[in-house]
Amino acid sequence: MLRNIYIFLFLLAYSVYNACQCPVTTLSMRECDKYEIIFKGRIDSVKPCENNSGEAFFRIDELYKGNVTQYFKVLFKCDEPCAVQFNPGEEWIIYTRYKQVNNAMMDWCSRSRKYFKVENQDFYKVNYGNDYDDEVEFLRKNLGLHRVASGSKNISEKRNIKPSTNQSIIILICSLAAIILFYWLFNKFFKF
């Protein structure tokens, strides 16, 4: 019996230790200044988590801050305690920073929030002290609506991909061959 109590207390302490604990923020211009990109948009598609990382593709409805295209990719970590599941069709207000040229990284402890059709389900309202519509109104009034950059999905999507092991070996061999060739040519034509 006592052993069961210890196990229960251990599991309780572990769950409290790993619980989501984001700092409390208030909606203000100072808070908005922390982020490079702020927009309202709908999730077009979600790439499932792979190696603890996922991707959500948003269709931008209203841009309040930053420079983004109509379709914008937001990267996110999957195993963080505060992570929430992204689903296609959901409407979100996203506060984020650039991670790569045309991509942003989701900070689960940012002011980002999902729109709930049923107001009682909006748990962000308790944490942030305002509802979704108040947040949109504040952003429109204080940051204004900005033009979304022309273009479709990210054109730089394939630019930041790390080469595979085989590609790295081929690049290394070609580089080594070029250095040897340069050394041979230099010694042949420029003898001192």
List segments where confidence is low: pLDDT < 50 over at least 5 consecutive residues.
Answer: 6-18
Strand order of the largest sheet: 1-2-3-5-4
Number of DSSP helices?
5
Strand content bin: 25-35%
Distance between the termini: 89 Å
Mean pLDDT: 82
**Overall strand count:** 6
Q: What structural class do the secondary elements suggest? A: alpha+beta
Question: Would you tell me which CATH topology of the largest domain applies?
Answer: OB fold (Dihydrolipoamide Acetyltransferase, E2P)
Q: Approximately how much helix is present in the residues?
A: 25-40%
CA radius of gyration is: 24 Å
CATH first level of the largest domain: which class?
Mainly Beta
Produce a short descriptive summary.
This protein has helices at about 1-15, 30, 125-130, 130-140, 165-190, and strands spanning about 35-50, 55-65, 70-75, 90-100, 105, 115. With about 190 residues, it is of the alpha+beta class. The longest helix is centred in the C-terminal third of the chain and has 25 residues, at about 165-190.
